[in-house]
Amino acid sequence: MQQTPSTASSTTSSPAPASTAYDYVLDHRPAPDGGAPRRVVLLGSTGSIGTQAIDVADGAPERFRIVALAAGGSNLDLLARQAVHTRAEAVGCAAVDLPTLRRHIGEAAAAAGVTGYDPDLFVGGSAATAVAAWPAADVVLNGITGSIGLEPTLAALAAGHLLALANKESLIVGGELVKRAAAPGQLVPVDSEHSALAQALRSGTYAEVDRLVVTASGGPFRGLKRSDLAHVTPEQALAHPTWKMGRMVTTNSATMVNKALEVIEAHLLFDIPLERIDVVVHPQSIVHSMVQFVDGSTLAQASPPDMRLPIALGMGWPHRVPGAATPCDWTKAAQWTFEPLDEEAFPAVALAKRAAAAGGTGMAVYNAANEEAVDAFHDGLIGFTDIVDTIAAVLEESPDSGPLTLESLLAAETWARGAARARCGR
Ligand SMILES: NC(=O)c1ccc[n+]([C@@H]2O[C@H](COP(=O)([O-])OP(=O)(O)OC[C@H]3O[C@@H](n4cnc5c(N)ncnc54)[C@H](OP(=O)(O)O)[C@@H]3O)[C@@H](O)[C@H]2O)c1
User: pTM for this one?
Assistant: First the structure.
């Protein structure tokens, strides 16, 4: 969902007045790190989140400097061009060898007329983890897809960097393990719903929060019944009505697995019990989520669907980035609608709440089974409703995994992937 950011001049804030009677609500202090730009490590740089993060950094060079990049390797030319463009000091790539990565970067530099650019290179399965711990950094944006983002998440936290987390899977799969690794305030959400919740939560205390309300667009199959869903195609599942995202997250939006993961993410990020987190379908994707307070007040964060806003806020947290995205146009008539989630057609949310409530490695099994089932669906091996049915069946069979450690999580994941693949005929 690309929209042109407003020009800086229209959004530049006016000079701060001297202290006023409103200081208890309006913070007039200048941004504390208003000097050097924040040094950003970008994981998953070639993806939807990654490329938009580079847009954000390009639009606010006084705020952000990309110092390290990592990607999987399916688009090596783009990674090389990004490296040259940002002059990243470190570049990591999972599926490539060192000479190949060096050659691509060399070619990209030559094409751009750049000489003398010679970044540190990391390759192989742990490349993103090494880049996540790049020492000369302030913030790591994890925009990798899937639970493969877990070890980079843990590495960024161990290095003491602020972690702007788009890769919700690492928090959901890692659960308590990731929470224990994070210092207070070290984990900042990038998912638009959780960014919205974080923004609304700023206006009350923990004890004043009654419920979190996570909005869902409803995806391409909103309004369909379970019987209608049996024969929908991968192409239809990828036609998201409001957001343009990668294949996994788009498919997850169609099955509501994405919303299920987001409910668990909200529970882990904000410590609100699962029974006090609701999902409501809001097809316009303008209200990104809401917090209901104990006095009956509900605060919503609203903006046109554009990930650059939560990406910029995540990288710059707690400070807003002027012109990051286009605001709502309040001069035009608009209608926002809200409807309950059809839990019979879309059982993914209820299933995830049960798996998360059981604790341990339940959500690691849920997520791994889903990732395998989504691939099987796109390979034409299973139908659409089989995706969530596969997760349910794999959860049902999953053995008790004992105490929660990184090893037990990875073992549970490997087991779940095998069980899901066997069910899907892979
Ligand atoms: N896109 C959105 O609007 C959006 C919104 C909210 C949350 N999210 C979340 O953000 C995350 C990323 O989503 P996306 O839509 O940006 O996905 P995407 O477009 O599929 O991009 C995924 C990125 O991860 C990289 N990657 C894959 N394996 C890797 C590895 N082993 N090491 C390093 N990088 C690796 C890919 O690199 P190559 O392609 O080069 O292999 C690519 O750069 C997901 O967790 C998603 O749920 C996305």
Answer: 0.92
